[in-house]
User: What shape does this take?
Amino acid sequence: MHKSTANLDLESRSPPSHAAAQLLELYLSRSGDILPLDIFLDYSEVDHKEVNRSNNLSIAEKARREAYSTGMRRLAQILERVRLRWRFLAVSALRSFPAFSYQQRSLTPASGIVFSTLSDAQGFNLQYMSWLDFGWTHSQIAALVWLSSCPNLEHLCIGFYSVIETFSQSYAPPDVLPLTLSHLTDFELALNCSGGDPSSFLDFLIFPGLRKFKLTILEAVQLGPENQWRGVIEFLQRSEGAPLETLKLLGTPLNPQEFMEILQMTPGLRKLVFDGTLATAEILDQLSNPAAITPSIDSEYEVGDINSIRIPLCPRLEKLKLHNYSQPPFALADMAFSRCQHSSTAQARVGGELSLNVPCYSTLKYLIFVGDISLSPSNDPAFQACRDRGLKIIEKSRPL
Assistant: This one.
């Protein structure tokens, strides 16, 4: 990997003009032929008119939209010529255009523009590409084609609309599926599932080096006849041994048992974000430090048998964030209290003898509530003992 790169940020509230294309051409010509490229193009804030449901556009507005589409295609075609040098590429386009048949490809977010212009990415080795942000797209196949061309990818962010292209349309799948990306550490996936379940994208992926996984689902998923949703579980099973430290699961149809199975597979988690509805008594009990080894204020306690100590779920957990938590606080407060003594070991007496070898899983530093702060769960007196031990309890009115 080259440490030196050429960087360009280009953004405007006006549609991409011929002058913008000339500027991009000039920049590329002066950057030489070798340096990896970091390029950020943002035309997502261009002023445009909303249209009514009848899709009646004036001639002038149609011309303006066609000019925008043409300008974005022109920029993408220039970028295509230097794709083997890409290290970081972000192209942001308008999100709020309706998907008319004549502009569906060019005026959906960035990935739609790139995919429609760079559809022959398969077969190229984009060896410098370490960071890829697709924005939103409706084509899983195009995304897989791009991923198969980026063997050294480290960061991936992608969103899928509910209209998903299948292998029978537009693209042939990569030759080798599932696709393994050994260097990928950060993966953020957003799904708009109205009328379907695009989480099947996970079925084609293996990320053995994954450290951060964030999944957000914006619409309800329709479950199959067995009422199961195991896409995340099977993805983690294929990526066996991934050193996952951050996990975010929001809006998923996971049931508590499926969620429990995921937590059992991810013992290295330090940050965990999930919906408050999954904070059941059983989950919270399994996250709790066993009462037999929860230290008192003086951090000294009696242990009968070290071998009988149950390891809690997420034994390294430092930050817990709950979205829209509205359940009674007592089980959550008890769990937080059992985990918020900040030490990796504590003094214990085993058979009356002082021992420093007994593990202490009281690692929790932050408890964060996100959602309707009018409920103010953190103000409940049940959490005062946690504060006394130094736990930071935070409330946020919306996701950040």
Q: What stands out?
A: The radius of gyration is 25 Å. The longest helix spans residues 59-80. Confidence is low (pLDDT under 50) at residues 49-54, 95-121. The longest strand covers residues 155-165.
